[in-house]
Specification:
Layout: H1 4-21, H2 26-29, H3 35-52, H4 70-82, H5 92-105, H6 108-119, E1 124-127, E2 143-147, E3 150-161, E4 168-174, E5 185-191, E6 197-201, E7 211-222, E8 226-227, H7 233-242, H8 247-258, H9 260-270, H10 276-304, H11 312-339, H12 356-362, H13 373-384
Parallel strand pairs: 1-4
Antiparallel strand pairs: 2-3, 3-7, 4-5, 5-8, 6-7
The structure holds flavin-adenine dinucleotide.
């Protein structure tokens, strides 16, 4: 583990680097822009972070930027939040889900084939959820049938973040329907340019289209693109989902803390700094944000010490989702009627942009993504507190995307 002195030194280095490198005015530049401008900014920021070694601190030693301790990674995330840097939304699945799955479960050939591509800017998406398989992921029905040295894929995925930009997809498909649902799943790496793949972006209420449906019509995937053994997809998927556990919440809670001035600015603009109810609710929000930061911090400290327990991540995630909703709701109240006018979307930011209607709508993301609030409550109740299990046998994955 890193010493405090090392952390302080790294913090100073990252802070100085960010001062010089965060693209000025990126928030305005990303408001109501088309895909090309978004992709260009993400790519430019990704390349800078990769060069500086700050995009891949979680990769193993020997890989560019890799081999950093969890405490160092935390420092980098905290400083990114503090500097209000753009989030690497386009590359998140590649850098975390794909890379960590390959490091943990991939073959040497797969690592050699794909990891350089990720460092060179290849975009990945995650194809797990289906129209009737979200919380109950093991119910997925996309078929992968083995024909000699290939799998033939038929079916559909949904809610796949950034799939319309993706070069590759982490695909979870069913190779066997005869046994328990989890046992018949297989994990495959799909080239999104393969024949028979079609991608349809989903228009969101915000005007943005961050996710897409993916359709597979007799799509061929070579057997060498399988990660793990046939039927072991469920176990490999756990590695994918665990890849960023903790760090994302450290980043998001810190970003919420640094977004507080946007609320205060809005209070001044609306002349309600002296409104006793608003002041009370702001005070309560500040306390909850502090608590969310402390919970995320405590969780990571437990992970560093190898003392993580079932349900710990759910507590942080649930509290963050609840506090985020409070943040956006208070913004709407402070902003008054005017703030209920939806003035457009901002790409590559977190959910506290100060465009309150947008933030309010986006705050629902976090009560669904990564496992819905209800699923987190089930995990806490049943697996952490030992309460009776619910009657239905839902298959639940912690830390869903
Ligand atoms: C921002 C965002 C990004 C995403 N990105 C991806 C991605 O890149 N790749 C991908 O594969 N998926 C992605 N998803 C999908 C996400 O994993 C699913 O939306 C999530 O798992 C919920 O599944 P569902 O939408 O099918 O809802 P359902 O599972 O149908 O749930 C509907 C409602 O029923 C409740 N419910 C379900 N089961 C239970 C239960 N057992 N007990 C109590 N209540 C229950 C839920 O809480 C919810 O309120 C993303 C989702 C969001 C919001």
């Amino acid at each position: 583990m890193n010493t405090g002195d090392n952390c302080d030194q790294l913090r100073q280095e990252v802070r100085t680097w960010l001062l010089e490198n965060v693209p000025a005015g990126w928030r305005d530049a990303m408001t109501n822009v088309g895909q090309d401008a978004f992709v260009a900014l993400q790519r430019m920021w990704f390349e800078k972070l990769v060069r500086a070694g700050y995009a891949t601190p979680h990769w193993p030693e020997g890989w560019h930027g890799g081999g950093r301790s969890l405490s160092d990674q935390k420092v980098i995330f905290e400083e990114l939040a503090r500097a209000d840097a753009p989030r690497l939304i386009l590359y998140f699945v590649a850098l975390y889900h794909a890379a960590c799955t390959l490091f943990e479960c991939g073959t040497a050939q797969q690592r050699e084939k794909y990891l350089e591509g990720i460092l060179n800017g290849q975009v990945w998406c995650q194809g797990f959820s289906e129209p009737n398989a979200g919380s109950d992921l093991a119910a997925l029905r996309t078929r992968a049938e083995r024909h000699g040295d290939r799998y033939i894929i038929n079916g559909q995925k949904i809610w796949s973040t950034m799939a319309q930009y993706a070069d590759y997809c982490l695909l979870l498909a069913r190779t066997d329907s005869s046994g328990p649902p989890q046992a018949g799943l297989t994990y495959l790496l799909l080239d999104m340019r393969s024949k028979g793949v079609s991608v349809r972006p989903i228009s969101q209420i915000t005007g943005d289209d961050e996710f897409a449906e993916i359709f597979f019509d007799d799509v061929e995937i070579p057997v060498e693109n399988r990660v793990g053994a046939e039927g072991d997809g469920w176990a490999v998927a756990q590695a994918t989902l665990a890849s960023e556990r903790g760090l994302t919440l450290v980043e998001l809670t810190q970003r919420m803390r640094y977004a507080l001035p946007r609320l205060v600015r809005s209070m001044r603009e609306q002349g309600c700094e002296d409104d006793a109810v608003i002041r009370r609710d702001l005070g309560s929000l500040v306390v909850n944000i502090d608590a969310a930061c402390a919970l995320a911090d405590q969780y990571l400290t437990k992970r560093i010490a190898g003392a993580e327990q079932v349900g710990d991540a759910s507590v942080v995630k649930l509290f963050y989702a609840k506090t985020l909703r409070e943040f956006a709701s208070l913004g709407m109240r402070i902003g008054g009627l005017e703030s209920q006018y939806h003035s457009g979307f901002m790409r590559g930011a977190t959910q506290e942009t100060g465009h309150w209607m947008l933030d309010f709508m986006n705050s629902y993301n976090w009560s669904i993504a990564g496992g819905s609030n209800e699923i987190q409550r089930n995990i806490i109740a049943e697996r952490m507190l030992g309460m009776p299990r619910e009657p239905k046998s839902w298959q639940v994955v912690e830390g869903r995307p």
